[in-house]
UniProtKB/TrEMBL annotation:
Lineage per the UniProt record: Bacteria, Pseudomonadati, Aquificota, Aquificia, Desulfurobacteriales
Residues that, per the record, bind Mn(2+) 2: 250, 255, 273, 334
Source organism (scientific name): Desulfurobacterium atlanticum
Cofactor needs: Mn(2+)
Protein name as annotated: Probable cytosol aminopeptidase
UniProt entry tagged with the keyword Protease: yes
């Protein structure tokens, strides 16, 4: 999809349709009325459709010249914010795709409000809502060209939104690819080509190096698959970095559950179990574009969790590089086992901030529903600022406790800890407490994000279509490059 950002008087091209932002009970501006008039459309027509410009409302009017005018409501002008812009343009784009329109002009979205990056949100809304994973479909419905009429002074902001939207869409492309296409090795190749494009350092650890670095979680979980596991380390280092950030993403390219095989209805969609890894890659793409003055390391433990004669089993006990021993109680709690190696490795880099993201527990989805990420951190101020930012980006997060009283749940009998709690209660918390054992003292702050709910959605939601959402790419990119 081609996106043009132009600062000119609106002039619709041949075959170009229009999406027009309207506010509740706001009169159509003379500029827009003029364009409508040219195409033989009146505001009376719009009124007769009962369109008032409320949030979520749309109205379609075909013009005499064969164009389609899509009016989309954004609610009261005084209450406008970034998320309302994304939703309004998203609705408009969805209508355009329903109508199989190929060329669209975006009009009247040139809104400014203090404290809100509305033009950034517009770009994000366009990219996120126009995204479809249709490479395996015979009939591909796509918008080919979008022309955004905007002010020159807001161009940079729009470009920023474009970077974030494109980064999230890369993540969606990777998550949507199935397990027969993406294996630990193809994840590594993706990391390498991304690194080549942006000039990052990239190191892939395969079996020998995994052994040398005593990455026993990755080696253990990877044993059951004919696709060998690996560990990916990407490094971005500017000249004089102001801080060091480590990102960790769970890269289970398919989670069958292993010998503790998942039942049919739970195994479905487990291609999404690499969403944390893919989010980290998306964030690195954005980092490559933005080139911030912070040092960023991306760490991805990549495995496929399969049952096999060589697979690891319940009761197995493994020892980690930091000396902690773990007894396996379920081979389906594999994410925490591979993240542990990455967290130990990340700790050795002595970062100011380490953030891991993982489709870690079904329990987190039970707790917060499908649309909210579980956010864990002992640094309450940091957690609150991230939670607040997530409300702005629309990638909702909610702070959950690292409840010390639940440590008992994962205390082992013949090992230091076990990989599953003794009861199923607080499953998202016990998983986070498990990870905490591998975050060493020299990490200033640590955040764990359980994205099991919002990484992949089963039905259309806001400006997202079915499938991967690319969460939390936009929020984490903004958080590390802007907030602190
Ligand atoms: N990948 C799953 C978690 C998951 C569930 C992600 C639903 C996305 C949607 C994880 O590896 C897993 O299987 N977790 C188990 C943990 C249990 C064995 C303690 C779960 O949530 O049931
Ligand atoms: Mn699992
Ligand atoms: Zn998993």
């Amino acid at each position: 999809m081609k996106i043009n950002y132009v600062e000119k008087k609106v002039a619709l091209k041949k075959g170009e349709n229009a999406i027009i932002c309207c506010f509740e009970n706001n009169r159509i501006s003379t500029e827009i009325a003029e364009i409508m008039k040219k195409e033989g459309i009146t505001s009376e027509q719009l009124k007769s459709l009962g369109f008032k410009g409320k949030e979520g409302e749309t109205a379609l009017i075909p013009s005499s010249g064969g164009k389609v005018f899509i009016f989309t409501g954004a609610g009261k002008k005084s209450e406008i914010n970034e998320e309302k812009i994304r939703k309004a343009i998203g609705k408009g784009i969805f209508e355009a795709l329903n109508r199989k329109l190929k060329k669209v002009a975006v009009l009247n979205f040139n809104i400014e409000k203090k404290g809100e990056d509305l033009q950034k949100a517009l770009a994000e809304g366009i990219l996120l809502s126009a995204y479809r994973f249709n490479k395996y479909l015979k009939e591909k419905i796509n918008i080919e060209e979008i022309t955004v009429y905007g002010k020159e002074n807001l161009k940079e902001e729009f470009f920023r939104g474009q970077i974030l939207g494109e980064a999230a869409n890369l993540t969606r492309d990777l998550v949507n690819e199935p397990g027969n296409v993406i294996t630990p090795q193809t994840l590594a190749e993706t990391a390498k080509s991304l690194s080549k494009k942006y000039g990052f350092k990239c190191k892939i650890f395969t079996e020998k190096e995994l052994e040398k670095n005593r990455m026993n979680g990755i080696l253990t979980v990877g044993k059951g698959s004919k696709n060998p596991p690996c560990f990916i380390h990407i490094k971005y280092k500017p000249e004089n970095p102001t801080k060091k950030v480590v990102l960790v993403g769970k890269g289970v390219t398919f989670d069958s559950g292993g010998l503790n095989l998942k039942p049919e209805q739970y195994m479905k969609r487990m291609k999404m179990d690499k969403a944390g890894a893919c989010a980290v890659l998306g964030i690195m793409k954005a980092i490559g574009e933005i080139k911030p003055d912070i040092e960023v390391h991306a760490l991805i433990p990549a495995v496929e969790n399969m049952p096999d004669g060589k697979a690891y089993r319940p009761d197995d006990i493994i020892e980690y590089k930091n000396g902690v021993t773990v007894e396996i109680h379920s081979t389906d709690a594999e994410g925490r086992l591979i993240l542990a190696d990455a967290l130990i490795y990340g700790s050795e880099l002595k970062p100011d901030l380490m953030i891991d993201m993982a489709t870690l527990t079904g329990a987190c989805v039970v707790a917060l529903g499908n649309y909210t990420t579980g956010l864990f951190s002992k640094d309450t101020a940091l957690a609150h600022s991230l939670q607040k930012l997530s409300q702005k980006t629309g990638e909702k997060m909610w702070h959950l406790p690292l409840d010390e009283d639940l440590k008992e749940e994962i205390k082992g009998t013949q090992s230091d800890i076990q990989n599953v709690g003794k009861t199923r209660f607080g499953g998202a918390i016990t998983a986070a407490l498990f990870l905490q054992n591998f975050v060493e003292e020299n990490v200033k702050s640590w955040i764990h994000l359980d994205i099991a709910g919002p990484a992949f959605i089963e039905k259309e939601w806001k400006y997202y279509s079915f499938g991967a959402t690319g969460q939390p790419v936009r929020t984490i990119t903004e958080f590390i490059t802007k907030n602190r």
